Each structure stands twice: as structure tokens, then as C-alpha cells.
Amino acid sequence: MDTLTPERRSENMRMIRSKDTSPELTVRRLVHGMGYRYRLHVASLPGKPDLVFPRLKKIVEIRGCFWHQHPGCIDSHIPKSRADYWKPKLACNQSRDAANERHLRSEGWTTLVLWECEITHRHLLTKRIRRFLR
Q1: The whole model's pTM is what?
Q2: Which CATH superfamily includes the segment(s) 17-133?
Q3: Could you tell me the pLDDT band of residue 17, with boundaries at 50, 70 and 90?
């Protein structure tokens, strides 16, 4: 049972952004500090990837654990209320992510997916990004 009124829940959902999220801004600052330059949300690529490194032909995607259903993550649960709405919606996000990755790979792009829950481990995150962008 949802504790919020439908109007309040709708307002909360409207406030959730797809760009310039806290995890994305954290990764952008980190990558910029490492000396790499990138393009943001390139519309000509499938899924408008978060960080695009055209010269390297590499992409970094920052995904929310709930919205993209991070396997094994505590934040990737299906809400108890309106599960019949959420299950197909979240499954569609996952299938769209997979299709976008396949399309990008077929065009020669390499993708690194960073999950929201991984962003807090800054030292490991830095090592992982540095290794990917070499």
C-alpha cells in the first residue's frame, strides 16, 4: 500500500531526472579530473549515452539500480503496490538497455556500465574507469 496520495506520488515521480543526476555528476567530475574530455548525451547514438569518448570509441553509462534493475542489488526491488504496472515498465527498460548495447557494439563502440550503488566506492570506481579508458 502506498503511503502517499496519488497526486504526491505523481509529483515525486516527475522530479526524477534522466540527466544530471547525482551519480552522473560524480562520475563526470571524476573523469574530468582524470584529464579525459567527453561529450554528453549524444542524440545520434542509441539511448543517448551519458558520457561519450568519440576519439576512443568508448561510452560510459551510469544507471540507476531501481530503474534499470541492477541484478543482486538491494535497490532493484519491484514495488509492492502496483506491481502489475512496474514489472513490465522495468523489464522494458532492461530490454531497451540490452538492445542499445547490442547496436552500439555493432557500430564498434565499447561500453562500461556503472551502477548507482557502485559510485560510492570512489577508489574502485577510479581504477575501473582508468582501466576502461586506456
Answers
A1: 0.85
A2: VSR Endonuclease (3.40.960.10)
A3: low
